[in-house]
Amino acid sequence: MNKRAKEIYSDQDYIEGLRQRRNVIISAIYRNYIDCIINLVNRNSGTDEDAEDLFQDAMIIIYKRIRNEELKLSCSFKTFFYSVCRNLWLQRLNKRQWTTIRINDTEEYANLSADIDYEIVEPSEERKRIYLRHFSSLSPDCQRILELFAQGFNVNEIAEQMQYKSDDYAKARKYQCKELLKARIKNDPLYKALADDEEK
To answer: What does the pLDDT read at residue 164?
Structure first.
């Protein structure tokens, strides 16, 4: 794995950046911390994909604590972030194996407050909310096309339902609407906090 360039921000920069959903801070957190989270998970029976999912979930938890004015650091932001990921991963390993697991640590961690809710929202639910928010921002025409497509209607049937003059136009409109929805979701700051931002 290639080493990512580290960016220097203060703990307060991270907190305020997440509060404001600033893309530059969200990207910096990913670049600065994802390697140690991958290392944590790889050393403890997990894959890179598990680590990416874990990172996303931790971002959701921390963002919501910041938004709700519940985040009070007694350690560095990095240690806090790692500790949230560590606890989440330990919880998942225990669920998988139905036994008590000891984590092979890669970084310093803190004993976090017991009031941290690691079950705030399942990642799939959070992604669903982002999808629905942006889906509802589309034009009624686009919403209807995508609904028909999701229900299994073919291009010819969509053209008939939407009263388009040709199948080609229906196909083009379906593509345009789908790409517009994807672009809006990908540009959502919270989505960027959850998504793999490695290439940015």
So the answer is: 92
Q: What is the DSSP string of the chain?
A: -PPPPP----HHHHHHHHHTT-HHHHHHHHHHHHHHHHHHHHTTT--HHHHHHHHHHHHHHHHHHHHTT----SS-HHHHHHHHHHHHHHHHHHHHHTS------SS------TT--TTSS-HHHHHHHHHHHHHTTS-HHHHHHHHHHHTT--HHHHHHHHT-S-HHHHHHHHHHHHHHHHHHHHT-HHHHHHS--TT-
Q: Using the predicted structure, report yes or no on whether residue 15 has a pLDDT greater than 90.
A: yes
Which of residues 66, 90, 119 is at a domain's end?
119
pLDDT of residue 121: 43
Q: What is the dihedral of CA 198, 84, 101, 125, to 10 degrees?
A: -70
Domains of the chain: total: 2
Does position 67 have pLDDT exceeding 50, yes or no? yes
Closest CA to 16 of 7, 29, 5: 29
What pTM did the predictor assign?
Answer: 0.53
CATH code: domain of residue 89: 1.10.1740
Identify the domain containing residue 179 by its residue range: 124-189
